Amino acid sequence: MGGGRVAADELRLLIERAERLEEEKRGIADDIKDVMGEAKSRGYDTKAIRKILAIRKKKKDEYQEEEAILETYLHALGMI
After folding, report:
1. What is the pTM of this model?
2. Which of 39, 60, 63, 65 is surrounded by the fewest CB atoms within 10 Å?
3. 1-10, pLDDT tens digit by residue?
4. Taking the CA atoms of the chain, what radius of gyration do you get in angstroms?
5. CA terminus-to-terminus distance, the chain
6. CA atoms within 13 A of residue 67's CA, in its CB half-sphere
């Protein structure tokens, strides 16, 4: 029976840790929202900033390949 108590304690600790991380995640999301609000108030385009953030997360080769495919598709559709 004692093993069940240990497992329950371990499970509770894992859940509490996940809850704390969720709280931190919400706090970080609020901070990012504040930064975007500041950028917008200074006249920056927040869609462009978010796009730049997404690009910067990618490896250079990966980004260049995606852009080449996108350009090919846009050209095929007569959009460029």
Report:
1. 0.70
2. 60
3. 456 777 999 9
4. 22
5. 70
6. 10
